[in-house]
């Protein structure tokens, strides 16, 4: 994908039409916007329109405006800048002829007007379908295709560029001004997922995660059950029952909170944290735990890199990821308690 970005920067410098092809959700509009921001037109408007959401008449009205309504079309609004025509393969042959005039003569005409206006606009068109076959079958004008296909870039699916996921995640967090860390286990799951919805699906997942996360880092329990915590036939490798992470219940969270707090307290005092010590101290808590129960919970924490288990005086130690998880659990349970108190008052 680094090669694609390098090419995009080169294309930005050439003030010529561009076609961007790629699967739905692969980030075609993001690339179009990035090209505009790298171009000499970056201080002028970037106007985007999804052609497939309008009927032919509505799209003509949006693009070219109306003299009767004194409405400026999108080409006029994008004057000096860039217009991004998303899903250009969906427009009719009649409207394609009008777009061809804009490209050839650099003029636009409002509906109902006898006058033409100059159009100093760069056109970037995108399509999820390959346009060349559409020309062959007659659903796209050949002359329009070759006027648009001066510069071209094809984007791969997100599954074919999974190394971009951490960069995209950081970008989504930055745009929402969220100073959140992403737990390594969460990122591992995101990197292994097949992303049928591409970049758009990834963005939607991060919108969800930023909404539900109560702590300072995004943890496994923040992930939605669908699609990450269910099996997806023919898409992901089969998992054994004990390999599959299940959403944490309220009791799970309370028990893990107690165990991690006990380990942290022992670490701070320089004392080893053993199963027996944790089990004994839990007898006075809301959720007493047997040594066997503590062992199972420590196995889970070690599997997720929240603790390291040592022998003898080394004992069990909490990791940086574990401290993040502890903070997340604390804030999550505080939120749950606050909501319960508010509901009790309302009742």
**Biggest sheet statistics:** 5 strands, parallel
CATH topology of the largest domain: Rossmann fold
State the helicity in percent bands. 40-55%
Rg computed from alpha carbons, rounded to a whole number of angstroms: 28 Å
N-C termini distance: 55 Å
Physical arrangement of strands within the biggest beta sheet: 2-5-8-1-9
Task: Provide the low-confidence segments as ranges.
Answer: 231-244
Mean pLDDT: 85
**What CATH architecture of the largest domain do you see?**
3-Layer(aba) Sandwich
Keywords:
347 residues, alpha/beta, Rossmann fold, Helicase, Ruva Protein, domain 3, Arc Repressor Mutant, subunit A, 3 domains, 5-stranded parallel β-sheet
Outline the structure in words.
With 347 residues, the protein is an alpha/beta fold. It has three domains: 2-156, 3-Layer(aba) Sandwich (Rossmann fold); 160-243, Helicase, Ruva Protein, domain 3; 250-346, Arc Repressor Mutant, subunit A. It is 49% helix and 12% strand. It contains 15 helices and 13 strands. A five-stranded parallel sheet has the order 2-5-8-1-9. Strand 12 (307-309) and strand 13 form a beta hairpin. Helix 12 packs across helix 15. The longest helix is centred in the last third of the chain and has 27 residues, at 320-346.
Produce the secondary structure layout.
Elements: H1 2-13, E1 18-21, H2 28-38, E2 46-50, H3 56-64, E3 65-66, E4 71-72, H4 74-77, E5 82-86, H5 93-105, E6 107-108, E7 117-118, E8 122-127, H6 131-137, H7 142-148, E9 151-154, H8 165-175, E10 181-182, H9 184-192, H10 198-212, E11 217-218, H11 225-228, H12 250-268, H13 275-282, H14 291-303, E12 307-309, E13 316-318, H15 320-346
Parallel strand pairs: 1-8, 1-9, 2-5, 5-8, 10-11
Antiparallel strand pairs: 3-4, 6-7, 12-13
Helix pairs in contact: 1-2, 5-7, 8-10, 12-15, 13-14
């Amino acid at each position: 994908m680094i090669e694609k970005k390098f090419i995009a920067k080169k294309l930005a410098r050439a003030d010529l039409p561009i076609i961007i092809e790629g699967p739905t959700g692969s980030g075609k509009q993001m690339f179009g916007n990035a090209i505009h921001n790298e171009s000499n037109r970056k201080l002028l408007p970037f106007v985007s329109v999804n052609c497939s959401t309008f009927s032919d008449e509505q799209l003509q009205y949006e693009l070219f405006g109306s003299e009767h309504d004194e409405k400026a079309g999108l080409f006029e609004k994008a004057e000096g800048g860039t217009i991004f025509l998303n899903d250009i393969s969906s427009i009719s042959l009649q409207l394609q002829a009008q777009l061809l005039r804009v490209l050839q003569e650099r003029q636009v005409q409002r509906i109902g007007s006898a006058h033409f206006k100059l159009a100093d606009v760069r056109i970037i068109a995108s399509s999820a379908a390959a346009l060349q076959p559409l020309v062959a079958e007659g659903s796209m004008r050949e002359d329009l295709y070759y006027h648009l296909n001066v510069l071209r870039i094809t984007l791969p699916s997100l599954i074919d560029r999974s190394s971009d996921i951490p960069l995209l995640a950081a970008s989504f967090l930055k745009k929402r001004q969220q100073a959140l860390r992403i737990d390594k286990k969460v990122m591992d799951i995101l990197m292994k997922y097949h992303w049928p919805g591409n970049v758009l699906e990834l963005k939607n997942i991060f919108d969800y995660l930023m909404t539900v996360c109560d702590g300072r880092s995004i943890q496994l329990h923040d992930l939605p059950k669908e699609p990450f915590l269910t099996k997806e036939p023919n898409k992901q490798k089969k998992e054994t029952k004990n390999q599959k992470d299940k959403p944490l219940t309220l009791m799970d969270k309370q028990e893990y909170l107690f165990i991690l707090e006990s380990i942290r307290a022992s670490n701070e005092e320089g004392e080893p944290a053993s199963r027996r010590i944790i089990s004994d101290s839990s007898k006075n808590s809301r959720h007493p735990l047997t040594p066997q129960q503590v062992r199972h919970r420590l196995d889970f924490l070690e599997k997720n890199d929240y603790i390291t288990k040592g022998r003898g005086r080394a004992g069990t130690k909490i990791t940086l990821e574990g401290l993040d998880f502890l903070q997340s659990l604390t804030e999550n349970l505080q939120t749950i308690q606050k909501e319960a108190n508010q509901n009790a008052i309302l009742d």
